[in-house]
Design a protein that fits this description.
Length: 286
């Protein structure tokens, strides 16, 4: 029986970014479902102050629907989708970037729903909380100035993270492109940037949300390294792999590598679709 790929987006993203990958998967004969986590996709808030001409003062104070959404909410939503997908056969859960945190919590809670879990340059915390990893040497090369310069408002007051991805500041745009899509064209970068939503939730998890050996650790797992990623450097991706392997040495990661920045694999998805197609062949047939 054909597996279903369940695709989980990263921060400020949504299901829309998976459309080209889903097209490639479909043309290879694979079934896929792209998830919008709570407060994402058509549930996102786009304040009028975000439109042109922009009102940055208004944008800094406008309420957002994602306020109060927790990591537990994300995991519960994802588990509901996994339950539905599992009725049709095997499930391969694929997460990108911050989406890996949600995928990990869902795997901790319901390993029975997942036949393989795939992290594409994604967070799978084992030894530390995600926020703590940012202070580690593997993240020392990350240039956070672009995203920091795009941030609007006080997260503590808004109850969410807000970024002005519609900025026209050439320095900020250049920094964001270097961080996320240095190997893409300017037009590809601007097209992708315009699929981002301004708001993201604050909750990145606690020690209880790290990968658990007795649940998460039972699931066959793959890590897809993105060799040109500068926002989650290869050194940190490799650390995620080492920590996961140390937690479950009897069930190590199957490791694959794509030549890609953080986002290029979604802009030019044919290589990623082939990798995922290879993994589909490893799924159980019941």
């Amino acid at each position: 029986m054909q597996p279903t790929f369940v695709l989980v987006h990263g921060a400020f993203a949504n299901s829309f970014s998976f459309a080209p990958l889903q097209a490639e998967l479909g043309l290879l004969g694979h079934r896929s479902v792209a998830v919008d986590l709570p407060g994402h996709g058509f549930a996102a808030t786009y304040p009028s102050a975000y439109q042109a001409p922009q009102d940055l003062e208004g944008l800094a104070h406008a309420p957002g629907s994602i306020k109060g959404v927790t990591l537990a909410d994300n995991a519960t939503h994802l588990i509901g989708i996994l339950e539905r997908a599992k009725r049709n056969g095997p499930v391969i859960l694929v997460s990108h970037s911050r989406g890996g945190i949600t995928a990990t919590v869902a795997a901790n809670r319901r390993p029975d729903l997942i036949d393989r879990i795939v992290y594409v340059s994604a967070w799978c915390p084992v030894d530390l909380d995600v926020s703590a990893y940012y202070a580690e040497p593997e993240m020392a090369t990350v240039d956070v100035t672009g995203l920091a310069s795009a941030m609007v408002g006080n997260p503590a007051e808004l109850g969410l993270l807000r970024a002005n991805f519609r900025t026209a500041d050439p320095g900020v745009l250049a920094s964001l492109k270097a961080a996320f899509l240095a190997d893409g064209t300017d037009d590809e970068f601007m097209a992708f940037l315009n699929t981002f939503q301004p708001d993201e939730n604050l909750d990145a998890g606690t020690p209880d949300d790290r990968a658990q050996a007795d649940t998460w650790g039972r699931i066959p797992k793959t890590y897809v390294r993105l060799s040109e990623d500068t926002s989650m450097p290869l050194a940190m991706q490799d650390r995620m792999i080492r920590e996961g392997d140390a937690l479950t040495p009897e069930n190590p990661y199957d490791v694959r590598t794509l030549t890609s920045s953080h986002l290029k694999w979604l802009v030019d998805p044919a290589p990623a679709a082939r990798v995922l197609g290879d993994l589909a062949a490893l799924a159980p047939t019941h």
